[in-house]
Amino acid sequence: xxxxxxxxxxxxxxxxxxxxxxxxxxxxxxxxxxxxxxxxxxxxxxxxxxxxxxxxxxxxxxxxxxxxxxxxxxxxxxxxxxxxxxxxxxxxxxxxxxxxxxxxxxxxxxxxxxxxxxxxxxxxxxxxxxxxxxxxxxxxxxxxxxxxxxxxxxxxxxxxxxxxxxxxxxxxxxxxxxxxxxxxxxxxxxxxxxxxxxxxxxxxxxxxxxxxxxxxxxxxxxxxxxxxxxxxxxxxxxxxxxxxxxxxxxxxxxxxxxxxxxxxxxxxxxxxxxxxxxxxxxxxxxxxxxxxxxxxxxxxxxxxxxxxxxxxxxxxxxxxxxxxxxxxxxxxxxxxxxxxxxxxxxxxxxxxxxxxxxxxxxxxxxxxxxxxx
Length: 373
Description:
The chain is mainly alpha-helical. The protein has a domain at 100-284: C8orf32 fold. The chain has 12 helices and 3 strands. A 3-stranded antiparallel sheet has the order 1-2-3. A hairpin with a 2-residue loop joins strand 1 (225-230) and strand 2. It starts with 23 loop residues before the first helix and ends in a 24-residue tail after the last helix.
């Protein structure tokens, strides 16, 4: 057997390994780039050119160029008289530019019960109440189409909005009737006849002031609410001037919408002669609304036995509303007392003119659907 041959081993090279090539060109390029960037930064600093700030980790909120519009409706051409004298000096056709709340409050100035009246603060409160009414109305708007509530609101947006206007003001804002004045009339305190009394949670108001407050707040939301007189009573009416009307009764607790025929008999019957004049069951103009407020001012002076001042107030009423025939009797009585004295006045009339607020009507439709289902 032949001897196995040894496996050949690979021959080692005797040549020395070549040294690695250094990347000189790469380092030169990096150095050139750094020099270029440094030069550009230096030029930017010297030239005052701004550099990009460090990016924020939080995306900033966009800043609105103008604040969102307020839902409160105020006329752009509104007039804001500072005193009652300034208000009465305005032409009757300009009174529509005066806020009804301001108009009413100015008529209360100088009377007992108005000593601490802050006009600006009262108007701000009206704005705040309007915002609260809007919030509650919008929050419950689903009820207008919800089968559980739609029939209650007569499937009418007007009825729905009027209902929530009164419900919010009564339940959330504390607007209430002063029951002490139902059977014991006393108009010496202006808070019983003007809306600042309703802003005092311990006071309350009467049918002379509650409808005015509803109108003042409603108009701030764009509601076409007018004042309407029955005999010995004041209420509101939604009247858009295009044929849609809704009587709004809220002098008691809750909300009712009675037809005109109800007020032909309540609180006192109205004759055809009464209805022939523009005095009862008609939507009042701004001038006629001011006339009603001046009549209330005259009532306060009459009960205070300050007859000359009562005459002045009633004369303004007569000037602003020439068709108010029944109200003219108050001027006649105050003039008699001024000219001939209280004794002659009482001999002729026997007693002071009847101005007692009637008891609030039975609120058959009182809104009790106030809470969320």
